[in-house]
Amino acid sequence: MSGFQPDQPHAEVRLSPNFGQRRDEMKPDMIVLHYTGMETGDGAEAWLCNPASEVSSHYLVHEDGRIVQMVRESDRAWHAGKSSWRGDTDINSCSVGIEIVNPGHALGYSSFPKRQMDALIELCLGIVERHNVAPERVLAHSDVALGRKVDPGEKFSWRMLAQAGVGHWVAPSPRNGHAMLQPGDAGAAVEELQSMLALYGYGVEITGRFDAQTAVTVQAFQRHFRTRCVDGVVDSSTLSTLRRLLAALPGGLD
Hints:
single chain; alpha/beta; Lysozyme-like; Muramoyl-pentapeptide Carboxypeptidase, domain 1; 2 domains; 10 strands; Amidase_domain; Amidase/PGRP_sf; N-acetylmuramoyl-L-alanine amidase; hydrolase
């Protein structure tokens, strides 16, 4: 295949060889957002199209708002790596991956420009319409790759997406600074926390012990839904925000 018509109107096309067929006839019903974590957008675009990298995404959104499509939405891009959500472990086969140009935490993490966010929102709205993606299935790489990835990170504006009709989000509850649950704790309250995180979709094991895995999961949750403090400690703000998100799901807590 030397090229293709873009799924998203006005997107540029630059074909990546790094893709395959979606497994078991799966269809995309999820969007996973990443940041590139490289010094330049051009460098990231070249890497995603380099066969030696063995990585790709369906789209790349540059800082100036340009959108480049590298893999057709009908195909399986290699963007999520080892990941899971709601028990699914082949996230690449059920998702559309979007890389957002940003240097990332290791190279001077910066805010995402409005032109870039506006272009991303337009792209996400198109994908949601084409594939009937539910709001709660618009996720961060850090949500599905616990402990392994932190992108797009705490400076990414999920609020802005939600205000445009993309994603599942509630305004985070105010902080009071007092820890309710933290690493080393155990018991019914920890089990309830783990159960709620798992019910939302996170791949956390329900053990009743606030272990390292639980702390990493709490950090991922905070990085998406309570970004002012990402510390892996459960305060009233974290717990209340989680409860309200669950209650706002279709069917509530059922």
